[in-house]
Amino acid sequence: MVYIHPTHERVDSINNLKKRQLDLSRHLSVEAKARLPNPIKSIWKVAQVKPGTINMGNGDPHHTLYPVCEMNFVVPSISESDPVQAWKAGTGDQQIIASYKDEPCALSLRTALAYGAGAGLKHVRDALAELTDRIHAPPKHTVSLSLGNADALTKCFRLLGDPGDSFLCEEFSFSAMTNAALPLGIKWVPIRMDKDGLIPSDMEKILSTWNEASQGKRPHVMYTIPCSQNPTGSTLPAERRRQIYDLAHEYDIIILEDDPYFFLQYDLDIQATTIESYGYTRAMADVLPRSFLSMDYDGRVMRLDSFSKILAPGMRLGWVTCNDFFGEKLDMLTDSSSQHPHGLGQAFISELLGGEGWGIDGFMKWVSSLCREYERRRNLFMDVFRREVEGLGLASAETPKSGMFVWIKINVERHPRYRKSEKSDKPGVPITNTAELMNDLFRKLLDCGLVMMPASTFAIVDQTGAVNFFRATFVGTDEVIEDGLKIFAHGLEEFFRY
Fold first, then answer.
1. Other CB atoms closer than 10 Å to residue 252's CB: what's the count?
2. Residue 251: how many CB atoms within 10 A of its CB?
3. In sequence order, what are the beta bridge partners of 3?
4. Separation of alpha carbons 256 and 301, rounded Å
5. Cα–Cα distance measured from residue 91 to residue 102, given in angstroms and rounded to the nearest whole number
6. DSSP state of 290
7. Where are the alpha helices (DSSP H) in 100-148?
8. What is residue 172's DSSP assignment?
């Protein structure tokens, strides 16, 4: 295990809380409790302890027969003042970082391309543990690698969920992930949202009024996307995060903190003096949102991070930070399923975050520069939206504080075909034809040459209710943003005529 130890400041605050280490074994699924360690991997781990041990037990091809001895990665030079802009314009310097099989480097290809343990290679986990510690400063936790957050999350579902279990989540969520839990027999219990994300009082109402006789076992897991929530783009304020964590502590809830957009924050007040004195990592850590992991004094947070949004989605490499008990169970699952993440990606990350690459502070400089570029694109999107769409009175949108998405509300009640009936099986909730109209609008926009994701795609339970929203992304080129929103405005006008 690669442990993350708390900083001195956090040690004091944790000690003051005087919380005992919880027994979290009750949260494990029947499958996780029954799983045994992979015996071959167990022997492999023992063999790594003593250097120079002759290993005649594994079926590894010998490194002398690998048809590769060197890999060179051409990356932007982090010496540029604004490396993203220089890279995009093609005016900046380049840097070559290399992995070798037979020469010194951060992570030898002999190791990277061989069989490994499910948690990933120690050198990579050490680097990511250091990054996590410098940003979140959590109490003692461990880092395991994943094939991106989708891989990590589906494994967490298997680790924690049994058929018939109910898990909490936002009322709109990333359906590719929530759907992955359904074949496991997990049922979703949606928590209402507003423009700031998940509403703590609704979470408390659900938990405090839960009737196990009629509803089954009370939820013991919550899945959330706290920054740039997908699809709504909302980011939980600090006070709400504290309230949610306190509720999780009170009702013994495990928090699955899926945070792929965490590093993409906008309107940040980064202090130049902090950069000069302490570097980009400290400067960014001072202004990034406080994560659930950072306040996790009793080990109930499993945090999922990914390189997909800040380097490239095809890398399929991420990391899970959690207590060592869950970490060990997660590694056992990986050892007997997908196996460790690919060695090429681990080699690249090792060199990138190593002494001959960007290093952690250079990586955070790239992240800071990336934030400025995406902030520019977000601002352009909102400017064009106000110019082309808002004046029509047919749609509105909040400016997102992070991530990649804008949640656009469609004023369907203004459509001539809109219908509303007070007769409903839900008291106070009228029946409307909103879902039908939104489906028609989706098809109209598609005919016009534009795709936006309809809210019904993300609705956890009721796909016919308050689904008068589209999810749009602002990460495309300036031309895509301009042309797309002009098409959107034109399509809206035509649709609302009949």
1. 15
2. 18
3. 142
4. 6
5. 34
6. P
7. 109-112, 122-136
8. B
Q: Are 109 and 73 in contact (CB under 8 A)?
A: no
**Percent of the chain at pLDDT exceeding 70:** 92
Contact between 157 and 29 under an 8 Å Cβ cutoff? The reply is: no
DSSP state of 20: P
CB 294 within 8 A of CB 6: no
The model's pLDDT over 121-147, given as tens digits with 9 standing for 90+, comes to: 999 999 999 999 999 998 879 999 999
Q: What are the tokens at 227?
A: 């920054």
pLDDT in tens, 270-318: 999 999 999 999 999 999 999 999 999 999 999 999 999 999 999 899 9
* Exposure letters 261-275 (e unless 16+ CB within 10 A, then b): bbbbbbebebeeebb
- In whole angstroms, give the CA distance from residue 244 to residue 250: 10
Antiparallel, parallel or unpaired: β 193-194 and 197-198: antiparallel
Residue 118 pLDDT more than 60? yes
Asked if residue 152 lies in contact with residue 146, where contact means CB atoms within 8 angstroms, the answer is: yes
Closest CA to 315 of 203, 448, 428, 150: 150
DSSP of 132-172: HHHHH--SSEEEEEESSHHHHHHHHHHHH--TT-EEEEESB
CA angle at 479 for the pair 493 and 395, rounded to the nearest 5°? 30
Q: Which of 454, 264, 490 is nearest to 377 (CA)?
A: 264
Cβ-proximal residues to 332 (8 Å cutoff; 6+ apart), any chain: 35, 36, 37, 38, 118
Report how far residue 258's alpha carbon sits from residue 225's, in angstroms, rounded to the nearest whole number.
5
- Alpha-carbon distance of 55 to 109, in angstroms, equals 18
Structure tokens at 262: 């965490």
Provide the residue type at 309 as one letter. Answer: K
Evaluate whether 227 touches 261 at the Cβ level (below 8 Å).
yes
Name residue, tokens 């999780």.
Answer: 248
Task: Please report, as a single letter, which amino acid is at residue 180.
Answer: A
The count of C-alpha atoms lying within 13 angstroms of the C-alpha of 437, restricted to the half-sphere facing its C-beta, is: 24
Instruction: Name which of 246, 241, 237 is nearest 257 in CA terms.
Output: 241
N- to C-terminal Cα separation, the chain: 62
Q: Please report, as a single letter, which amino acid is at residue 95.
A: Q
Asked whether 7 and 308 are in contact (CB, 8 A), the reply is no
What's the rounded Cα separation, in Å, for the pair 45 and 48? 5
φ/ψ bin of 448: left (φ > 0), alpha (ψ from -120 to 50), beta (otherwise): alpha
pLDDT digits (tens, 9 = 90+) for 392-431: 999 999 999 999 999 999 999 999 999 988 766 666 667 8
Degrees to nearest 5, angle at CA 262 with 248 and 138: 55
Total-model pTM: 0.92
User: CA 45, 49, 52 angle in degrees (round to 5)?
Assistant: 115
